[in-house]
Structure formats: C-alpha cells, structure tokens
Hints:
8 helices; cNMP-bd_dom; RmlC-like_jellyroll; Cyclic nucleotide-binding domain-containing protein; cNMP-bd_dom_sf
Amino acid sequence: MTLTQKLSCMEAYLKRLCSENQVTEQEMKKLLARMKMMHLDKGEVLAPEATDESGLYIIACGILHAFTSCEGADKTIEFLSAGDTLFCYHTDEWSVKTLTKSMVYYISGEEVEELCATSTSFANLIRQLTEYQLYFREEMYVNAHKQTVKEKYLSLFANIPDILYRVPLEYITSYLGTEVTSLGYAAGRR
C-alpha cells in the first residue's frame, strides 16, 4: 500500500469513526497517538495468544470478520471495516480474523484503564466508544434474527460497498446464512 493510499484510508476511517461515535477529531487523534499501529496480513487472527487479555482495536484499513467455528466450519457473525472499533473479541467461542491486508490501532485494556484514571476526556471518550459498541452489537443481534436475507444483503453492501470485490463469496454467504451461489439470487430472496 502506498503512502497516499494509507493517508486516504486513514482520513476516511477517522471521519467515519468520529461521526459514528459522536466524538471530535481532536479527541480521537489524542487516543490514536497513544495506540500502537499494527499492519496485518490476510488471514491473521487478532490476539490469538491472549484469550484473557482485553484491549481496544480501531480499524484503520481493511476488512475483518468475527466468526465462530461450528462443526469444523467457520460461521461469519459480522464484518468489520475502516472506522469500526472493537474490544478484544478472541475467546474460545469466537475470534476476529483479517480477510484482507489491514491496518489497526491497538491499546491494551490495562493502558485504557490508566488513561481513563488520568484524564476525564479519555474516560468520556472510552465511555462513548463502549456505549456505541454495546448499542451497535445489540442492534446487530436483534436485526440478525429478524432480518430477511435480502435485508442483511442490502445492509452489508450499504456498509461495505466494495466487499464483493475484496472478500471471497463463502464468507458473505456464511454471514447471510444462505447457501446461494449467486448474490444476485440472495438479493431477491425474502
């Protein structure tokens, strides 16, 4: 990835991150300055050796998926892309893996606690990020059980328009919960 592509990607995710979490760019830049930038290759699992460690990840670039393994097959729970935040997901039940080359910011749970103890603005920022994630996850869970395949399909492509060009079809159909061989067919299903 060229420097120009990285800067463009980072600018886009910063705007999305601020608008979705209702925080200022200045607040977010202060947090990002305290975080470690990680460049991940396709197929890497976030925190594979640290199942008990908590931490905050902010996705700068790339597409990842949260998945669970069931009867030897991975079932995609959700897709994550630039601007999404997540708290360490890796458990015995589910994990997060990169589907494309990705850049993510990371800060450990211990460092988050230290920042919150020393700064009210950081504490408020982390609270806002946490509240948004909890709200988003609850909405996603409720919608996943009441949305049709078509609604899930349209929502996915509204959030990540280029996903079809960047992610193998098997992950998308796994997320949709269907065995289609054509996404055109999925878009028409009820």
